[in-house]
């Protein structure tokens, strides 16, 4: 360091700053490089983890279905990242399923072994592994290997930039240090020069300037104190002079400041006055402005006020403001206005005023009170805006709204009346046709009457569709939110359509995924309506094959469950250009005059709107000649309610471990039946033909595990169910198993054939889960095969069991046909009927005799059903209650609620459905003691 000692203080300080800056920049560069390496590896690990998780989700299905090509295509998407060397997809056992390697990659990396999820870092590569799950179960794993080529390139650029920054920083430090060091050296040089001048010239007035509180500053301060001792007198005089100058300057500045503030205040005042004048001009141009004194005398009115009131300014000034009062507003309204402004508050509102020529006009008014310094009110300023045109439009809109509401009411009343007028005779047509069909008829007569019954049912469907569509259009349909068993709902719905499907020889299937909850909350009736529409259409347009209903869970949000339904058929299909039209009201795929299929074209439109009300959507996929698939989704509420126990009378031990053979040529049927049997802990196997079934029976016998039960489809190609049973009975080496025959289309004589072949039960598809379980348990529990369960086709009133107690029922009905129909329906069920033609006759009958139930029509002469019900309830004694059920053709929204609110206990819409009548009889009746009954009085001819 010999060169350092003779150097000047400025050079020494510059060298120290240079070396310090160089050291600091070097340490910072190394620290940033270490940080960049760590940050890059962390970011790379996160990025590779996202790749692994995304590819794991996308390849889960390929792993589950062993689809290597799809998996290779998905892994091939990694080629967009050049730093990815390799990716491996492993199956559930850890074996390599498919592999990806970067093309042209210079670095060779061995295929990584599966070691579970995690991240491992090698000197020149990084491996990220993730597990793949599907439906909560492990499906495999994925590993992605990446090199650090991007990191090396980044570090190279970083060092080049760091070198450039270092050189630039050194140059900047040299320049800055040259300038900054002078801040330290200049005071010292100055002090040396002053000392030299004082010594040579003996001029003690010289001073060295200070350099802060450091050592140099203290040196300068001590030097100046030494000079001060010599020149005390001169400094005192000089100080007095300088103090006087400062005071004069300060006062001058204060005066100048006051002058500036006054000028600024004057400018603000002028600006305020200008804005005020502009505001007054704007108000005069666009608003109706007036001013009154505290008594309400007009003291000012602008041109707009004069124009709208047709008064001149001379006619207004000095007049009371009530000169424009129209008398439209009540006294309370005007009184509230004056109370507000007299209390010093601003009033805002709308007023109707009167012009000089008697013309009325509306103004939106703001009245502002003004007070003097003592707080006493002196004047009021009113600012008005003409809103006469707006009020006119509002009045016209209100009138239009009232007209629309009146039209809507008229439409609703018309629909209600039309529903009543059509349903009343239709009730007689359908009911009497059912009664005649239950009698002995010739084949030709039965055919004619069945045609009448089908036509009446079709007419009722059309009426219901039109009413439903009208209620939806009017927004008068509300959805219920009740808990119900989804499987029971679907199975019972398909049961009502089974006869139509069987008549056409179609398979009717229902398949519900295991993840679908049994109990859900929602509107079961509207869901059933949608399914009936879709499945009914599928049956209509399908001539051979099958109609299948499938349902599975889509997603869950909080307590809501989204369900996906599909109704698939093998029918005629829909042209692509018609797919969007079929959901429109009154539109069908075939609208020609020669179309083969009937209908209103409202079913799909109603279903689509009901699905939308349940938070879902509906769409269709179809191809002409290859059938259609109608999809719809709905949101239902998840519930904690438990589904009722299935057939609690069936001991589980009867079913557990039983070996069952399912024989059906339809794959979906076999899968559904096998799933049900496995749920009951039975041991099912399946065969797609009779030949294979015989081979399975022989194999089971030779293995010492014979089949104990056979579920056989009746209609199969080559060998049907009856032939299979006959072949089984002809083999003495096979122990006689219990056989249940399943059929999609029952024919006359099938029951007798089943008895002849020893079939234990004969069931009609679609088979409800509870029905199949009960039938299997019964035949296995009894072991008897003497008779088959009969095939139940169309419901008949003759099948209705007689009640244990006959009830006395009063029917209040003015229509003769409906009187006869109700009487016959009730008498066939073993009850005693009394008929009244009016409400007055019904009250008279109740005075003479006691009844267990009253079926009350709503529209009757003299006294309608509402008045009669009110009179009955008024006369009832405490502790007594007579069940009254509305029997009406009114089926619009709110009719049921209106009847219940009137004091009735139930509601039965016409046309009367036998099953609905049975539900009423079983749900509402408590028979009176025999001592309270009197002889029947018939008040009207039937």
Architecture overview:
- With 942 residues, this protein is α/β, with parallel strands linked by helices.
- Among the domains are: 9-156, 2-Layer Sandwich (Beta-Lactamase), CATH 3.30.450; 287-386, PAS domain (Beta-Lactamase, 2-Layer Sandwich), CATH 3.30.450.20; 478-545 and 563-627, Histidine kinase-like ATPase, C-terminal domain (Heat Shock Protein 90, 2-Layer Sandwich); 652-794, 3-Layer(aba) Sandwich (Rossmann fold); 798-932, Rossmann fold.
- Helices cover 48% and strands 19% of the residues.
- The chain has 24 helices and 27 strands.
- Strands 11, 12, 13, 14, 15, 16 and 17 form a seven-stranded mixed β-sheet that branches.
- A hairpin with a 5-residue loop joins strand 16 (618-622) and strand 17.
- Helix 9 crosses helix 20 and helix 11 (486-503) runs parallel beside helix 12 (524-540).
- The longest helix is centred in the N-terminal third of the chain and has 56 residues, at 9-64.
- The protein is flat, with a radius of gyration of 50 Å.
- 26% of the residues are buried.
């Amino acid at each position: 360091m010999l060169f350092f000692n003779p150097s000047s203080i400025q050079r020494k300080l510059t060298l120290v700053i240079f070396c310090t800056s160089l050291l600091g920049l070097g340490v910072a560069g190394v620290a940033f490089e270490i940080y960049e390496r760590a940050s890059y590896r962390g970011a790379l690990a996160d990025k590779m983890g996202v790749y692994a998780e995304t590819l794991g989700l996308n390849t889960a299905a390929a792993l589950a279905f062993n689809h290597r090509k799809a998996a290779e295509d998905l892994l091939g998407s990694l080629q967009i990242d050049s730093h990815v060397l390799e990716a491996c997809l492993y199956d559930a056992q850890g074996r390599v399923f498919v592999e990806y390697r970067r093309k042209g990659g210079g670095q060779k990396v061995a295929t990584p072994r599966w070691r579970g999820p995690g991240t491992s870092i090698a000197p020149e590569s990084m491996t990220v592994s993730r597990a793949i799950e599907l439906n909560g179960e492990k499906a495999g794993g994925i590993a992605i290997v990446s090199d650090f080529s991007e990191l090396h390139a980044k570090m190279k650029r970083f060092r080049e930039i760091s070198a450039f920054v270092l050189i630039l920083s050194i140059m900047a430090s040299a320049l800055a240090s040259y300038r900054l060091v002078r801040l330290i050296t200049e005071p010292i040089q100055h002090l040396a020069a002053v000392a030299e001048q004082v010594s040579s010239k003996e001029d003690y007035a010289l001073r060295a300037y200070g350099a802060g509180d450091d050592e140099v500053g203290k040196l300068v301060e001590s030097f100046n104190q030494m000079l001060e001792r010599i020149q005390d007198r001169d400094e005192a005089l000089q100080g007095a002079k300088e103090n006087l100058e400062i005071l004069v300057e300060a006062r001058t500045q204060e005066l100048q400041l006051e002058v500036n503030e006054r000028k600024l205040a004057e400018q603000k005042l002028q600006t305020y006055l200008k804005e005020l004048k502009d505001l007054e001009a704007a108000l005069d141009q666009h608003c109706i402005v007036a001013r009154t004194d505290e008594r309400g005398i007009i003291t000012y009115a602008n041109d707009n006020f004069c124009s709208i009131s047709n008064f001149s300014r001379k006619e207004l000034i000095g007049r009371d403001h009530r000169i424009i009062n129209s008398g439209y507003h009540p006294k309370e309204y005007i009184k509230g206005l004056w109370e507000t402004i007299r209390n010093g508050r601003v009033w805002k509102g709308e007023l109707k005023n009167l012009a000089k020529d008697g013309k009325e006009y509306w103004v939106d008014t703001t009245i502002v009170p003004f007070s003097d310094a003592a707080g006493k009110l002196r004047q009021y300023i009113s600012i008005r805006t003409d809103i006469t045109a707006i009020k006119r439009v509002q009045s016209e809109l209100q009138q239009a709204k009232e007209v629309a509401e009146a039209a809507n009411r008229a439409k609703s009343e018309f629909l209600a009346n039309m529903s009543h007028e059509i349903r009343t005779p239709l009730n007689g047509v359908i009911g009497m046709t059912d009664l005649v069909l239950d009698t002995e008829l010739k084949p030709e007569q039965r055919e004619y009457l069945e045609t009448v019954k089908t036509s009446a049912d079709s007419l009722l469907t059309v009426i219901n569709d039109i009413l439903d569509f009208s209620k939806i259009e009017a927004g008068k349909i509300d959805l219920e939110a009740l808990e119900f068993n989804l499987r029971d709902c679907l199975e019972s719905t398909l049961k009502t359509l089974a006869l139509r499907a069987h008549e056409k020889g179609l398979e009717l299937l229902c398949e519900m995924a295991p993840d679908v909850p049994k109990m859900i909350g929602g509107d079961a009736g509207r869901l059933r309506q949608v399914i009936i529409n879709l499945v009914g259409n599928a049956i209509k347009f399908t001539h051979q094959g099958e109609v299948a209903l499938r349902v599975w869970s889509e997603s869950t949000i909080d307590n809501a469950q989204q369900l996906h339904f599909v109704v698939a058929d093998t029918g005629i299909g829909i042209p692509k250009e018609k797919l969007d039209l079929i959901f429109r009201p009154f539109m069908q795929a075939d609208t020609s005059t020669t179309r083969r299929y009937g209908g209103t074209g409202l079913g799909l439109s109603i279903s689509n709107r009901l699905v939308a009300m349940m938070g879902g959507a509906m769409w269709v996929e179809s191809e002409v000649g290859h059938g259609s698939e109608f999809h719809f989704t709905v949101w239902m509420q998840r519930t904690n309610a438990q589904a009722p126990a299935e057939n609690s009378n069936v001991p589980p031990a009867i079913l557990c471990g039983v070996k069952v053979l399912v024989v059906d040529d339809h794959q979906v049927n076999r899968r559904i039946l096998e799933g049900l049997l496995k749920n009951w802990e039975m041991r099912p196997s399946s065969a797609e033909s009779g030949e294979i079934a015989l081979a399975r029976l022989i194999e089971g016998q030779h293995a010492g595990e014979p089949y104990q039960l056979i579920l056989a489809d009746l209609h199969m190609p080559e060998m049907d169910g009856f032939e299979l049973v006959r072949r089984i009975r002809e083999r003495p080496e096979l122990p006689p198993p219990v056989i249940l025959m399943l059929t999609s289309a029952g024919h006359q004589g099938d029951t007798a054939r089943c008895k002849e072949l020893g079939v234990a039960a004969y069931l009609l598809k679609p088979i409800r889960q509870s029905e199949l379980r009960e039938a299997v348990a019964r035949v296995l529990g009894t072991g008897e095969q003497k008779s088959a369960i009969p095939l139940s086709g169309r419901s008949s009133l003759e099948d209705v069991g007689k009640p244990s107690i006959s009830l006395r029922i009063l029917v209040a009905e003015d229509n003769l046909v409906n009187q006869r129909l109700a009487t016959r329906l009730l008498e066939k069920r073993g009850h005693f009927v009394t008929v009244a033609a009016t409400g007055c006759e019904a009250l008279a009958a109740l005075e003479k005799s006691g009844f267990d139930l009253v079926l009350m029509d709503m529209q009757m002469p003299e006294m309608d059903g509402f008045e009669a019900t009110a009179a009955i309830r008024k006369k009832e004694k405490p502790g007594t209650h007579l069940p009254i059920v509305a029997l009406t053709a009114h089926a619009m929204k709110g009719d049921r609620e209106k009847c219940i609110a009137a004091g009735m206990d139930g509601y039965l819409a016409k046309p009367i459905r036998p099953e609905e009548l049975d539900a009423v009889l079983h749900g509402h009746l408590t028979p009176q003691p025999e001592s309270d009954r009197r002889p029947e009085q018939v008040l009207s001819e039937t």
